[in-house]
Amino acid sequence: MNKQRALIVLTLSLSIAIAGCSGAEKDATLGSAAQPTVVRTAVVKSSPLHTAYNLSGTLQAYEEHTLAFQNGGTVASAYLTVGTAVQKGGIIARLDDADYKLQVAQATASILEAQAGIDNAQANLQAAASAIQSADAGITGARANVNKVNKGARAQEKQQAQAAVDKAQSAYNKAKTDSERTQKLFEAGAATASDNENARLNATAAQKDLEQAKESLSLLLEGATAEDHQSAQASFQDALAGKSKAYAASEQAEASKKQASANYEKALVAKGQAELALSRTRLISPVNGVILGKSVNTGDLVASGQAIYRIGSIDRLKVLLPVPDSEIRDWKKGQAVNVVLYEESRQGTVSNIYPSTSTDTGRVNVEVVINNPQRDWLPGQVIKAAQQVTDKNGILVPAEAVINTGSKPFIFKDVKGKAVKTPVELGDQVVENQLQIVSGLREGERIVIKGSENLFDGNAIQSEEGGRP
């Protein structure tokens, strides 16, 4: 195995040496050219050794969602295109919502109407309660009247009536005597006609008062008539009927209030449903991500559940690696996996090992999750991957960065915009066209990885980053 690696290193070094020799034959005065040479550089870093990139897979969004409207209708806006970044909770499409807004307005009007019905029924309840109180008072008065008619006059009332008769009799006797005396005086010419007339009128009035007092006393002594009993009883029955009517009105008002309350609750539910339907005219992103697919355009008529957008979260990506069944025992959840895309290497983590083997390929899918904070790796790209079989790390640089002209191999460092020739010692590891450097370089230094064949020590260089290490 060591001989094979040495042969690979020798072959790569010889190919580089040819380019290095041709560059060395150029006039050294070119090294002091005023214009800097454009080269590609990279920062030296430590990488796992003994890694074979023998697996490949297609990157997928870590989370992927197909979004659809829950209502059907005409698409009012769907302007976002594939590749557009979206935020969680952001509106990415809308339906024409005119009909749904009208439903909300109608439901609101129904709520107000039902509330007015409740208020009216409450007012009727209060009026019925007042009518019941009034009816109770009427019943009490009518019952008292009936009792009074049935019992007749009390002894005290009779005594008072008799006293009134006696008083009226005395007043009459006096008035009559005065009238007779004044008449004699008038006839004798000792009283005027006016005095005579006044005396006569007083006697007449006293006589009427006496008659009324006697009539009142007679009524008390005789008691109530049959008509009085009937009238009192009729008034009592009318009072009872009034109370029954007031209770009926109260019950009707209570029923109206219950119906109005039911209508109010029904209107609230209708409004809630209308508002929910209105909210469903907006298509909202459930995650932070990018649009991976678009199925409709503004103005299209869509059905409920019809796919509109496909959105993926790509802050993290995943890839399914088809691992041979004979090697699956070496893979564990949480294990580190090296993945490479266009010379850029990242570390992923095994998140799941599928429980079955494909009958067609004899391989088991291993799901690897890769952090992608810059979102510069995209779903659909094909990566190469390798399981890290040892924790030993070392410095690996692209083979074309190493120049060997027959003496000790060297590379060019980028030191403050100057190419600095630096001898290095090669190790025995070759990983993905990269050579192991065991001395001469340290992590964090910047080296030229492309364009070094045209450089001389001390040349001014203009760096553009890219690639490994």
UniProtKB/TrEMBL annotation:
Pfam annotation, one family: YknX_C
InterPro entries referenced in this protein's UniProt entry, alphabetically: HH_YbhG-like, RND_pump_MFP, YknX-like_C
Coiled-coil region: 158-227
Alphabetical list of SUPFAM superfamilies matching this protein: HlyD-like secretion proteins (SSF111369)
Any one Gene Ontology molecular-function term assigned to this protein's record: efflux transmembrane transporter activity
Ranges where the YbhG-like alpha-helical hairpin domain occurs: 132-241
Signal peptide positions (record): 1-24
GO CC annotation: efflux pump complex
Protein name: Transporter
Species: Paenibacillus terrae
